[in-house]
Amino acid sequence: MRAGRASDGVAKPRSLTGVFEKRMSQPKDFVIAPPTRFISVNWAELWRYRDLFLVFAWRDISVRYKQTLLGVLWAIFQPLITMVIFTFIFNGVAKIESGDGSPYPIFLYVGLLLWQYFSGTLTNASNSMVANAGIIQKVYFPRLIIPASTAVTGLVDLAVASVVLIGMMVYYGYCPCLAGVLILPLLLMIAVLASLGVGLFLASLNIKFRDVRHALPFVIQIMMYVTPVIYPVSMLDNHPVVKTLMLWLNPISGVISNARAGLLGTAPVDWGVLAISAFTSVLLFFFGLYYFRATERYFADII
Amino acid sequence: MSKPIIEIQGVGKRYRIGATKEPYLSLRDEVAKWFSPAARRARAAEEQFWALRDVSFSVEPGEAIGIIGRNGAGKSTLLKILSQITPPTEGKITMRGRVGSLLEVGTGFHPELTGRENIYMNGAILGMSRREIARKFDEIVVFAEMEKFLDTPAKRYSSGMYVRLAFAVAAHLEPEILVIDEVLAVGDMEFRKKCLGKMQDVSQVGRTVLFVSHDMGNISNLCSRTIWLDSGSIRALGDTKDVISQYVSSGAHLGGEINWADIESAPGNDKVRLKAVRIMSNGHATVDVMIDSEVRIEVDYWNLQDGAVLLSNVHLWDKMNALVLASANMPSASLSVDPWAEKPRPKGLYRTVCVIPANFLNSENYSIGVGIQNGRLEWQAWEQNLLAFMVHETGEMKKEYMGAWGGVVRPKFVWSTVCLNGENLD
Questions:
Q1: How far, in Å, CA of A155 to CA of A278, rounded?
Q2: Which of A79, A101, A175, B303 is deepest in the core (most CB within 10 A)?
Q3: CA torsion sign, B161 to B163 to B164 to B169?
């Protein structure tokens, strides 16, 4: 029966011819040569591959909650339960306060959301190249797409978990000031750039040295304590050196403190701190991008 | 005529052999290398190996070119360079069209995704835009004969369905240049023909095809010109019929044989000299063995000493150079009784055959070593890495489980289950 239908698929070459001729009229010449020392990012090519970028992001989102009972609710449970337990331990037992008059749970939740976005994207980006080794060895596309798509995946979780934040804001009666809403895209941008910057660097390091896989969970755990997630930055007022270092080296600290200020309206937006965070994150991003591009060519040989 | 669509000039690719031995490094090993002089020397001595050297040719638009050669001749490396998966070490390639490469069937297929989702996934990975896939979606589904299973996760597919769907997506690729590696070796005959038909159809529309295969029949059906690669460089390039006949008459397509014509320089000593080693399957020497065929390793050797007691050895290594097995024709280690085992032999030429049963090895590359020992188990001749062969899947053992079987061997065993509580559960 199958043999009888063997010509089905070849029955309509007319449409193929049309598409084909259109492309033939505009051939894209390109040259394959040994890599040079000069490294650049081919933005035009990245743009051409935007569909694949979206497909990767969509695959990761779609696969993550397949065959789970609670599905996307997991994106809510994780920060929610962390918030409940942390509030009990750090606020109830250890007596850490928000320091700006806002209730501790909502203060903590804002920090947790952004922290989990940053650490999640960083982890996923770092492991992404190794996880997709099979594809990398068989097909060409700009490799940047793989780690970059993890930033989108994280944004979806962030958006879902934000529903709880909105609920809490209504419950506690907070209304974000206008500036607070307006700086949100900027804050997210900084978080994306910072997590991708470090993530790109670690993703390519991970290909050569699988140590990254072991070191990362530990580093992220430690990093949470040098980020003002469970405590306000003002608690470090007596340690100016630590405070300055954290501000300059950890762009997420500026993002979190400004998100609290903007969303809860407890303090004016600190443009100076924001500028420093933006600067550091851009620096991190280009460092990661450069390192990734410089090592990218040999991924298929050593992965 | 217009400019060639592909111009390849002096392309070469060098690998470090050391790099292929370690699948990945750990930082500790790397640091240890800096401090230990011995390790540093080992690193310096790492052998460099040209998988491809000085390859030049050009392809006219609409041409279909076949690439043939033994395992390890550089075919896959060439395709990887053309597909931009790995950069060349030297040389230059100019492409004048969009390249689509098909080095594997179903790249990016995810077992958790449904057939519908996998079509989009796989299509995007192969370089189609979403709109292109959406436009061809129905055609792909009909081609794959998968209408009923579109919303079933791929992990519930049989191997045949999986391959059909993957092929259907690939067959609808429309780049100007299509690079295909051996992928047609899987899937059932009928469907393979259908795919070939589809590809041929489009190549008549003017698509350029580069096609690697072991199947001379496919090559001569599809390709007008053919390149014969031999240890990294072009041995012959020209009309398909001519190149194939050169290739076949050289015996290189079989390849599973080494002969030492000169007894003086053959491996061994003044008591024993090797003459030939062969990997035989289905009656001829070959480097390609089907998983459901037995493999016969033949060793021909001269016994130069009257009354010698000799013992033959066969070793097998996997691609990671780990020893898979060692076997010898001593009575306690064989299923049969070798008439010459433990017997003093007159001078002469002997052939010892070791039979590795069908459905025992896994589908991967193995290399063999052979040795001859005397009665006191002293080595008279001992050659490692003499020949390598590839075991190919036939669909055997892929009926229920379609994934890759792990392990260095894949034997079939006797299995049985009994119910232990003794009750009849009907």
A1: 19
A2: A79
A3: positive
Is the CB of A30 inside 8 Å of chain B's CB atoms?
yes
Residue B43 clears pLDDT 60, i.e. is over it:
no
In a domain, A190, yes or no: yes
Q: pLDDT (tens digit, 9 = 90+) per residue, B207-236?
A: 788 888 876 777 887 888 999 998 889 999
Domains, chain B, ranges and CATH? 6-250 (3.40.50.300), 257-392 (2.70.50.60)
Domain that holds residue A65: 39-298
Token couple for B284: 């001829």
Token pair recorded at residue B285: 């020497």
Residue A186 domain-assigned (yes or no): yes
Percent of chain B with pLDDT over 70: 83
DSSP, collapsed to helix, strand or coil, labels residue B209 as strand
Helices (H), A4-144: 13-24, 43-48, 50-64, 74-86, 104-131, 133-136
The alpha carbon of A21 is separated from its chain's Cα centroid by a whole number of angstroms, namely 41
Residues 104-143 of B with CB under 8 A from A: 104, 107-108, 110, 112-113, 117, 120-121, 124-127, 129-130, 135, 139, 142-143
Contact (CB<8Å) B26/A209: yes
Q: Which amino acid is located at B353 in the chain? A: V
The answer to whether residue A15 is domain-embedded is no
Nearest CA in chain A to B181: A138
ipTM value for the complex: 0.76
Task: Give strand ranges (E) for B86-231.
Answer: 90-96, 99-102, 177-181, 208-212, 225-230
Whole-model pTM? 0.70
Distance CA B37, CA A179 (A): 62
Contact criterion met (CB below 8 Å) for B47 and B194: no
Mean pLDDT of chain B: 82
Question: Once rounded to an integer, what is the mean pLDDT over residues A161-186?
Answer: 88
Residue A17 reports pLDDT greater than 50: no
Distance CA A102, CA A182 (A): 21
Best mutation target among B58, B81, B84, B137 (most A Cβ atoms within 10 Å) is B84
Cβ of residue A71 closer than 8 Å to a chain B Cβ: no
Assess A208–B contact: CB distance below 8 Å, yes or no.
Answer: yes
Return the H-helix or E-strand segment holding B367. strand B365-374
Total structural domains within chain A = 1
Pairing mode, strands B225-230 and B64-68: parallel
**Contact in structure between A157 and A64 (CB atoms under 8 Å):** no
Question: Is the pLDDT reported for residue B140 higher than 70?
Answer: yes
The answer as to whether A217 is a domain residue is: yes
For the segment A206-240, what is each residue's pLDDT rounded down to a tens digit? Answer: 988 888 888 999 999 999 998 999 999 888 888 88
What is the C-alpha to C-alpha distance for residues B337 and B344, in angstroms, rounded to an integer?
Answer: 15
